[in-house]
Amino acid sequence: SLSPDGLVPNMLAFNVGVELGQLLALAGILIVMGFWRRLPSFNRQAYGVNTILMMAGFVLIGMQLTGYFVS
Length: 71
Known about the structure:
The protein is mainly alpha-helical. The chain contains 2 helices and no strands.
């Protein structure tokens, strides 16, 4: 259970920690993407990855819409 004393500082500290974690994750992704873009096969690989991500998105939206209309 949360103590009533110090609730606001605890919430602020948690949110700041989450935001710092997101910034660190973004920095890592940008570093990896920078190295990946230098590869000669980047365009071919990026096209394939984007195609797979779009297909996964269409499948997920199909599942969500099916669940919405069936239930």
